[in-house]
Amino acid sequence: MIMHVGRLYRSENSGDSWKDISDSILAAAHKYAESTHHIDSASIDGLMANPNDKSSVLISTNKLVHFMTDDSGVNWRILQHQDTIHTYIFHPTKGKWGLLSSWTDACDSSKRNTGVCKHMLYLTKDGGKTFQLVSSYVVQFSWGDKKQKQEDRIYFSHFRSKSGHQQRLTLWNTGVDFVYTDDEGSSLHTIVQHGNKFLVSNGYIFVAKVKDAEEQTVTLEVSSDGGQRFKTARLPVDIGEKSYTILDTSEGGVMIQVNHGDDAGPYHAGVGHIYISDEAGVGYSLSLAYNLRNSNGDCEFDKIHSLEGIYIANQRDPYAREERHYLNHKSEYELDEYEYDDDDEEADQTAVGKRHGKSGREASFIRTVITFTKGAIWDYLDAPKVDSLGKPYIGCESKRCYLHLHGLSNYHNFPPFYSSENGLGLIMGTGNVGEYLSYEEEDINTFLSRDGGKTWIEAHKGIYIYEIAAHGDLVVMADMTKRSKQVVFSWNEGQSWYDFDVSDQGIMVENIITDPSSSTTKLMMYGTRGGHSAGLFHLDFTSLNQPSCKGLWAADTSSSDFETWSPSAGGRFTVSGSSSDGCLMGKQTVYTRRKQTSECFNSEQFQHPVEKRNCECTRADFECEIGFIRVIGDVDCQPYDVDKVLTPDEIDCTSSGVFFANAYRKIPGDSCVAGFVPTKVQVPCPSHSRFSGGASLVLVLVVLVFLFTAALSYIDRFPKLRSMFGNLGFESLNYIRYSTIGTAGKKAHQEGDDFIQAAEMDDMDQDAPKLMTYTATSLSKRNTTSGSSPNDLLELGQQQAAPPRPRAADNVPKLQPPSAPKKPDDVL
């Protein structure tokens, strides 16, 4: 079913033909409205399908009559709810259950005198035949999580005060709490006070809790045990957290983007930082800084749905702030809006044509990055060597030439990078090859990867909207920058393209869609023909009579249409075993897929055979711990403000002024075994840290030794004190007679001061060793100069010294200091 201009259409043959079913529904709505004294006629303004059962559909009208079907629109029943529908959420497993919210009539500005404005939450267990009130003054609501076996629980946030008009939650508010009910609203349990917004996803509950209402900052509270305990998410930076976007929770960990706001510095405008969590979803380390986002919170970040651990994102170059003086020119880096110059546009040009204006930005300083390790390591996209015409890219002689693709935040102008769950390894996007992403239409072309982003080709010149169908065996595209009669398609993953006409007049194509599973050869394309005239086209590629693929269990043989393939990072990681053996996320995954050269189709029920084996652990199987980061393309985790992140109890400083910290933790969901085992790394102690017990003992001993040495030095300055302490400990040996060492045979019979004095006079004895300058001249003069004192020998040696002999060390090349590594500060 589709809805268009207040009318509802239904198809029974996958979109080949359509029937308008609006009249019967609206007639029933009009009759019901009269019986309930609602004289206004109804029109269809909303359509929602049950994500767990596509045959169950809810339609809403602009008035107070709403309908639901359980058999794909064959039969309809009226919901017994006589208010507008703001939100409806189907139960995860029970088709008849649903949560419905509605704002009262008083919230309508034209009906302000009809009562109190508030947001009401209702529950139905019989498909809308009856509703019961759960709560009022509700902000947000959701069913519980199936993974926690709480699917019947209702979570919601609400205002504690239940009086007066309910305000819209446009600012974080300490008067809002996060609660749940297990008995349909009879009793409420507050689990996060000041919890305003929340998300229940894949076993986690995330709650944005107000930290400072005046500063409009929040903390992220996380529970992984069904709400029994919440812990504050621990981020490695101490700057304001304005809002959060939960990017992904599907692979055993959490990826979030935090909007730190303009208060964190002008370079943070229009961007956020991506953080990755431990398995509990509490400890977060920085994964990617300066990820693009727009004012609606749409982030230029997407998962490659057909493969595990691979994501693509757009990043504002962290080094450009110094090179381009971003910090002094805010207008240069505000990227939320795209400016157009419509002066040269013709009056009849459509909005799609206008959105590709010429003005653009001179330099975006945006680059596309990819991770094969769920955010642990990022790298730039390798640019193809030649374009779709076989010509090398101009200006790509330098190493800073990469492929850059447009993301979701600018989808009105350029199709974003895209993948489908059944299109194994296929990724498509529009962008350019160069140092940075371009926003000039003439620079943008359409690109394709068939190996999960490892390598890319320029699939077609120009900006095309695309769709992946038939398990990736079919790619269909249409030009979206101008009116066109044609559609282009490829059977061989972009190696060659074919086109055909779909209309006798030009169409400004808006999108091409297919079944959510991307398993069929039937697609739909829609757009505008001129003015406001819409067009919907059914594309059925089964009519081309392509053969079915054969030889599934004889893959890699010449008679088979199939091959085996393992995704890899393409040698990006400079550690053994991380990419060359096709291991990602701790395992080698071997898929059986159709060969690129085999122009055949698989059935809709086809599933790719998969084999997996665990790999030996390498550094690439570990992400950085909190307080450590990786720069783009590097596998080593470097400390970044560790002392500001760790608590005093976690910093155990040694006497050498260092402490040891964990720099690595295993990526959640990684299955590697044995191999690399990370050890703690040495980190300089902060100035305010305390010493460990052992270090404190050593420090005390050092201080005592210093004091003792100072005392001896002080005693030596005074003869009387020196005489008192000089022979301390020798009193028991004063009866022993000492003889002077030397041929003169002098008797040493002095005691006390005389002993010390005799020892001092030994230096003048002729048999005592002489201190001389070690030169050839002094040695030759030693036996020929009689009566010379030691000073005379030193003086003579200095006067007649021969040139110094060269030392071997003089010929040793000097070791140059190592080049300064990239400072982690450069990343942020």
Q: DSSP helix count? A: 9
Estimated helix fraction: under 10%
Structural class: mainly beta
Low-confidence stretches: 322-362, 574-580, 729-828
Mean pLDDT: 78
Largest beta-sheet details: 4 strands, antiparallel
Distance between the termini: 48 Å
In what range is the share of β-strand residues?
A: 25-35%
Strand order in space, largest sheet: 4-5-6-7
As a whole number of angstroms, the C-alpha radius of gyration is: 39 Å
Q: What would you call the shape?
A: globular
Count of strand segments:
52
Written account of the structure:
The structure is a single chain. By secondary structure, this protein is mainly beta. Among the domains are: 465-545; 562-614, Complement Module, domain 1; 649-711, no CATH class. Helices cover 10% and strands 31% of the residues. The chain is built from nine helices and 52 strands. A four-stranded antiparallel β-sheet has the order 4-5-6-7. It has a four-stranded antiparallel β-sheet with strand order 8-9-10-11, with no helix packed on it. A hairpin with a 7-residue loop joins strand 26 (366-371) and strand 27. The longest helix has 24 residues, at 693-716. It is globular and about 120 Å long.
